[in-house]
Write a structure and sequence with these properties.
Largest interface: A-B, 74 and 74 residues
Radius of gyration of chain A: 21 Å
Number of strands of chain A: 12
Structural class of chain A: alpha/beta
Shape of chain A: globular
Largest sheet of chain A: 7 strands, mixed
Strand content of chain A: 5-15%
Oligomer: homodimer
Helix content of chain A: 40-55%
CATH topology of the largest domain in chain A: Aspartate Aminotransferase, domain 2
Number of domains of chain A: 2
Number of helices of chain A: 13
CATH superfamily of the largest domain in chain A: Type I PLP-dependent aspartate aminotransferase-like (Major domain)
């Protein structure tokens, strides 16, 4: 028999898989063009041509043993330097290569951070609504995840709830910005207040409380917004990043952790991340992707593509009477369920061939997530179905 | 402060790093050509040209979103099928794609297997001497690693010790074949005896005891040897594999788990491995590498290169009076330390500019590991230093 914990995980995962298969069956029955699948956060913009060219150049010009070989568990020195330089140029930070650990995506990055900082029973706070995978990542390292409530008018965090949830055992607060699933960008003021609360608490308890920034959507921001860069507001910060969304390469598993040079015990933390890469079995970020990134670090994706989608679907939903916080980043809308039971609403939407994800997945029942990283044409085709859905709820 | 466990890990890792730096300093002082570094298990044969061509072809011909995109956590169906077909062709097995989970190397493969099968406190047996990383991999999932003694004449396992170490809590036995660090290949008879003991014990305790086969060195075998394919001898078997050594691509982190179709609860185990890939933060094996592998699954490395090295260094060492089991696979020799204190021998060898790894790392003190995945020329240059070393010990 597999382990008891995994039996539960498989059962939970089967439910998601069942939904996915239901979508497939629906497509087979009524035609894929008549199914409006807004359930997946999968990038849709083309991979930048210079990134693919950098891959080919590396294969054609580098020694194959160097290209596909082992390097320091933290990554190639030149890749780490390229990331540091890129951050410094954009955010006025002062990273050096030694502060950067290349990782197997943001998921790998978060896991090596938690391995580095958590002893069994340590608590990690997540700001609801949040990416459900955090639960597993914290549990992997025997940590305990606790939730901070949102202010559901703005979907900025509820500061008083944050203050009350930090205890002697709190080791970290995860800050995902822009936020999956709401698309909200936490403002500079929000970050300043969070930093003040955390700093007050780390002084009161006499130990570090780390900010763990999870920002795979950093580059996907609209209307001139930008997520504040957290090391500028709080010293004990780990920034975790993935190139999955910014370069549309989620399958390649490439990201990094940047450690604030001002972190207490920065050098030891950097060493520990590298060791954690090894112990957890990541070993290192895929080598060819590191090489390509070194050359194409300035490549960017077509944010305008998502922005066009955002405007179309947001304006339509608001026009129909739905309620949702205005998304300023990522590629999600978080819609208030017009049915008190969000699961019933997800089922009703499905009747209209619209696939959404219930907010319970993100620890925020009563809402649903819509991912607009789809084709503009699919959104256009779906609009009559949303009209029907609104009618059904008397909006 | 980082976690208590990681503080220990960082301290241990610093010792290894210190040795590595010492080697670098030695090279700076006396010239790299005069340092004989046999400490690292890093492949030296060129990456097969068809593998690099498969990468370029994939980048030039496939849709970039498909090429670098998410797929099922278990991998692309066509890659999984290519692996299954390749195994069936070579070993007469009957895998289907659904039995294969593509992984982030063998390290990723072992970690998703342990996540899948271990509840806290479950025991895993490793046959000494063994790859030290197993300790961390088992501990990651709150398992307890126990050691089985070797028969040091042949470095086949001590069967009676194996029998006595299997308890009610034993969930798995790791079998690494060919063996790092000895280079020994466990014979078919060895595997049959292990399978009998395990089968008897799983009947006695009324629950599965899994064979976890770790075989990154499967393709590196000499003199017509071949490591027995374990699913043919024992049903409850997970085979973990990496292409790191067979294609010289250790930096790319690509491997797989193959689940025996005859395993009790095979389907649930396969689902769990895929879920574990996600939860542990691997998510999936790097996508471009999966694509390249699908095309170049039959590519092989130049085993003759290692074989030539093996003969040169083994014959020389035996000729000088050193004792070591004849290596039939991998690229390691495990030499009996002529000094009762193996650490002293490692230091003495270093005086002669020979870098070796002490057997304590592999839970087998009194021996040292020599990795001959180096250039033939370096071995030739090193021979006088081995002569001096032998003389110093009066061999």
């Amino acid at each position: 028999m597999i382990s008891k914990k995994m039996q539960q995980e498989v059962a939970g995962s089967s439910a998601i898989r069942a939904m996915f298969l239901e979508g497939k069956e629906m497509a087979a029955k009524i035609g894929a063009e008549n199914v409006y699948d807004f359930s997946l956060g999968n990038p849709m913009t083309p991979v930048p041509a210079e990134y693919n060219q950098a891959i080919i150049d590396a294969v054609q010009t580098e020694s194959s043993l160097e290209l596909h070989g082992y390097m320091d568990n933290a990554g190639y020195p030149e890749t780490r330097k390229a990331v540091a330089d890129n951050l410094n140029k954009r955010f006025g930070t002062d990273f050096e290569g030694k502060h950067i650990t290349m990782t197997v995506g943001a998921a790998g990055a978060l896991n090596i951070v938690f391995k580095t900082i958590l002893d069994p029973g340590d608590e990690v706070l997540a700001l609801a609504p949040y990416f459900g995978e955090y639960r597993g990542y914290v549990a992997n390292h025997q940590g305990v995840l606790k939730e901070v409530a949102p202010n559901t008018d703005t979907f900025q965090p509820d500061f008083e709830d944050l203050r009350s949830k930090i205890t002697e055992k709190t080791k970290a607060v995860i800050i995902n910005n822009p936020v999956n699933p709401t698309g909200v960008v936490y403002s500079e003021e929000t970050i300043q207040v969070i930093a003040e609360i955390m700093d007050e608490k780390q002084k009161a308890y006499g130990h570090e409380i780390y900010m763990v920034s999870d920002e795979p959507y950093r580059e996907l921001v609209y209307d001139g917004n930008q997520a504040p860069f957290l090391t500028k507001y709080y010293d004990n910060t780990f920034v975790t990043y993935s190139f999955s969304k910014s370069l549309s390469i989620p399958g390649e598993r490439i990201g990094y952790v940047a450690v604030s040079p001002s972190m207490e015990g920065c050098e030891q933390a950097c060493s520990a991340l590298s060791v954690a890469n090894r112990i957890l079995g990541f070993v290192n970020a895929p080598s060819l992707m590191q090489k390509a990134l070194t050359q194409a670090i300035d490549a960017t994706t077509d944010v305008a593509y998502y922005d066009r989608n955002r405007k179309l679907i947001y304006d339509k939903l608001i026009g129909l009477g739905f309620t949702c916080a205005k998304p300023q980043g990522a590629f999600y809308l978080f819609i208030k369920s017009p049915d008190a039971d969000e699961k019933a609403f997800v089922q009703t939407a499905k009747k209209h061939h619209i696939l959404l994800v219930g907010g319970t997945t993100f620890s925020c029942p009563g809402y649903v997530r819509l991912a607009y990283c789809v084709s503009y044409e699919m959104i256009e085709r779906s609009l009559p179905a949303f009209e029907e859905l609104a009618k059904e709820y008397g909006l």
